[in-house]
Amino acid sequence: xxxxxxxxxxxxxxxxxxxxxxxxxxxxxxxxxxxxxxxxxxxxxxxxxxxxxxxxxxxxxxxxxxxxxxxxxxxxxxxxxxxxxxxxxxxxxxxxxxxxxxxxxxxxxxxxxxxxxxxxxxxxxxxxxxxxxxxxxxxxxxxxxxx
Length: 147
What we know:
The chain has a single domain, classed as PCu(A)C copper chaperone (Immunoglobulin-like, Sandwich), CATH 2.60.40.1890.
């Protein structure tokens, strides 16, 4: 009887291990520069004729006041800061010890001149350039359909 229980346990463990290999692994969503951390840069699906895409993310663990001064990605020809009380220039102050939330309904990053539609479930390379933190290689996830 003890052998049967052990075989069942081994079979269940083997099946669980096999099933876990079929599930795609989660993507890393934290990216680190020398002065800060960027968490989960994401955007929504865009239609083929969309003029821009809004990018949301969290910037925290800021050890030194810095500025986001550039964005390079193959899916857009430019980038700017959008939202309440912001200019269009890409010059976002990130103060030491503070957390910055870039959100759709407030201050956000806007990718302009889209070169292709952004598709659900895809991730695109995005290089964030900080004045003091240097270049941060990140991935832009397309997480949500347009509502």
